[in-house]
Amino acid sequence: MLCACSGEQFKFEDAPQSPESLATRDFSASGLSSRTGDWESKLEDVQVDEVESTLKEALSLNYEEARALLGRLEYQRGNFDAALQVFQGIDVKGLTPRMTRAIVERTRQRKPRSKGDIIPPSVMSMHSVSLLLEAILLKAKSLEELGHFREAAKECKIILDVVEAALPNGMREGIGEDCKLQEMFHKALELLPNLWIKAGLLDEAVTAYRRALVKPWNLDPQRLASVQKDLAATLLYGGVETKLPPHLQVWGSTTPNGNTEEAILLLLVLVQKVAFGEIKWDAAIIDHLTFALSVSGQFELLAGYLEQALPGIYERAERWYLLALSYAAAGQDEVALNLLKKVAGQSEAKHKPHVPALLFGAKLSSQDPKHAHYGITFARNVIDLADQVNEHFKGQAHKFLGVCYGNAARISISDSERALLQKESLTSLNTAALNIKEDPEVLFNLSLENAVQRNLDVAFDNAMMYSNMVTENSGRGWRLLALILSGDKRFKDAETILDFALDEAGRLDQLELLRLKAVLQIAEERPKQAIETYRILLSLIQAQREPHSNSTVHAKSSDSESEAEKNMEMAAWQDLAIIYTKFGSWADAEICLNKAKSIEFFSPKSWHTTGLLFEAQSLYREALVSFSVSLSMEPDYVPSIVSTAAVLINLGSQSLPIARSFLMNALRLDPTNHDAWMNLGLIAKMEGSLQQAADFFQAAYELKLSAPVEAFT
């Protein structure tokens, strides 16, 4: 019997002959050239029989083994049609029970041989089984080469069925030492899911992957890891939800719930194997894990695994950048920004600059005024370092630079510095608008900066372009447009804009726009309509408090949405308290304030509104206490600073210097606050400085003419 189950490919070793095989010579003599692979006509049964007869005589093979060997030869030469036709002559269905029995008998662990323990001669040898399994595998590969993927998968599945029927508990070590059974089976395990994927049957592919993993098939660690990785990738990107079958749900309540959770578990196992050195490092594992943890909202967990990556896998700047992305997505912007500062630090000065990390640092810094100067440094570095490869980053860098300049201007204590920063802000944003004309964010920021600087006409034009450019609904765009119109005292137009936006707004945007509509109605001195609008707003918030999904992504999303709803509800009660205070309804105002404080007791605006209520009742001492409580929570809360000064003015001339100090501090924080200028005018008038008082009153009047109903930022 020919040994066809060695670890190497079968070769004829007939030195005097040409490299052509015996089967090839017979085919050539019959006028069929297998050397060129050009089969112009179908094989005749007589010719096949002749070749089989020759192989039988030369190699002592039976009918099926001869066909298996002949098919392998044709497959190796790329004659897939011919190989397929040869393989189809093998009665696989009839041989399946015999192969299963042979594997059972030949792999059974026996005691020392006894007379009654002799394997019957009718049982196939392991060499024959391996040869036939290889024939089935090559038949599947031939079908794959010819584009018949579904049929190929069915053929490949036969190998798994045969071996699994014989070895229901898996494959022990040592089976593959003297034949190719294990090798053929492992190849079939890896090939089957790929065939199902090519056939477009992803659920069958997932089933095949799981089948390869649920039992110990003696796969080497690297091969096993490859199957686990491929299953995770299919679960993540296949687009077909495939739940674990009941017989695999052995973990009870901790069983993976859905594709993403199963993929994450597989990838975490692989990461652990990499950490222990069981398998080689594979960047694709972290790439898949990054995607899986990102879509499931597990950003902190992702950061933890990135930190566990061994030194040398990532460059330092790249590692810090990836960690910063993870922590920023988890809402830990301060941690992310500290990591990005390392990228811009002296330790990286001799290394190639990591432009994406610097740009991300500029973006994070632009979101918080206290980091504005860091953002300016980050953005300038990007502009200076960007080469031809990173040229497209320059426009984004100018955008963030403009935003950071604007934020720096708003916290500047020097008038000259503030004016310079505001000028630089508009210059950078205009440069960004020229470089990236299709970025709506540039137009929004340009509109916002012009609005803050009270260039309302330019701000309105940019806001309109932003609204036209953004295809989906943008609540903040409509809000900015309405505020710009309110600064022009076009309250009716602003309300019309809000009515239009409310029809298209999302849930949270709708709440914010409703509140702004109520504020506009207050400015128009329509308190009854404003109260009705607040009633609608509060009823919507109450109706939207429903149980959310238990998934992590929805849980995190619902947490942020619930927090936004709480803030909106508190703001509504605070605004209602101010309305009732103005009309002398002290009891109603106090009820509204208690509602607001029950939501968030330590809210500067709630205590500020409490002070306004006391001030309206001429309880100036109590009002000062309330304003002081507000300022103890937020020392730079400008409304409480101005109101404290107003109360001090009412208390008499002895308090005027203190009041002036409060007002100067308020103007340092917000130079456009017309109430502060008005109260400064009152102090100057009380002190007899009439010209100075007139200048202050003039400034207050001009600023009030362009003041929106709410702050732009």
UniProtKB/TrEMBL annotation:
<keyword id="KW-0802">TPR repeat</keyword>
<dbReference type="InterPro" id="IPR043376">
    <property type="entry name" value="NPG1-like"/>
</dbReference>
<feature type="repeat" description="TPR">
    <location>
        <begin position="604"/>
        <end position="637"/>
    </location>
</feature>
<feature type="region of interest" description="Disordered">
    <location>
        <begin position="14"/>
        <end position="37"/>
    </location>
</feature>
<protein>
    <submittedName>
        <fullName>No pollen germination related 1</fullName>
    </submittedName>
</protein>
<dbReference type="Pfam" id="PF13432">
    <property type="entry name" value="TPR_16"/>
</dbReference>
<dbReference type="InterPro" id="IPR019734">
    <property type="entry name" value="TPR_rpt"/>
</dbReference>
<feature type="repeat" description="TPR">
    <location>
        <begin position="674"/>
        <end position="707"/>
    </location>
</feature>
<dbReference type="InterPro" id="IPR011990">
    <property type="entry name" value="TPR-like_helical_dom_sf"/>
</dbReference>
